[in-house]
Amino acid sequence: MLIDSHCHLDAPEFDADRDRVVAAAMAAGVRQLVVPSVSAATFAGTRQMRARYGCAVAYGLHPIYVAEHLDAHLAELADWLRREPAVAVGEIGLDFYVPGLDAARQTALFEAQLRIAREFDLPVIVHIRRSQDQVLKYLRKWRVRGGIAHAFNGSRQQADEFIKLGFKLGFGGAMTYSGSQRIRRLAADLPLDTIVLETDAPDIAPAWLAGPPPGRNAPDQLPRIAAEMAALRGMEAGALLAATAANAEAVLGPLGSVHEAGQPE
């Protein structure tokens, strides 16, 4: 009943033991992993996650790698979406936290990818770090078919605006830190039908992996993250798992299940 709505399983951090990571997630009760790409150079690796394990995948150009993205990659993205099954366009968006990223170029790429999402009638998975209001501005302009606001850490007012636009809000490891009071309040108080669970593995490790040295996040951590949210909401964990899985499929469509390498889809 668990769906990890954001997991970079194709990242090089998993190259040495990816089969074991997927098997551990399945053993922990994780039914599906949504794997978004980050650049044109990673599209083939993202597709391999679908071919090898049955993951749900998305294709997009991540704002952190803005210096790598060429205009030609937008046409390449559209070509991949014509040829390959995808549940969303992502990971796309804006990042105004990392210093030195070209804001104007990020915005141009984001708008272009929103237009592509409209063309293919796909939802989007958006990166919103220090950029919630700016992302909302362009979502209002282009009106895509909803999506997921990844690693949500904005205000309740911003949360409500994303929800109005048909978005679910992603919560993961950041919620498990006792000092993350705003995120924990949102996780406790937002309507249950607006929330999805995610790990962002190998990043955003939960509190119990914080170290030192910090541990690698992985999708098998999702049940414990879910238990943390259930405790914050004062509800039974099973009901939370069922609701968040249903929310992910409500916005991304039927997601199927992962399987071990070599098994048929």
From TrEMBL:
Task: Supply the SUPFAM superfamilies for this chain.
Answer: Metallo-dependent hydrolases
- Keywords in alphabetical order: Hydrolase
Record InterPro entries: DNase_TatD-rel_CS, Metal_Hydrolase, TatD-like
Q: Sorted alphabetically, which Pfam families does this protein's record hold?
A: TatD_DNase
Q: Which PROSITE patterns match?
A: TATD_1, TATD_3
Transmembrane regions: none
- Kindly provide the name given to this protein in its UniProt entry: TatD related DNase
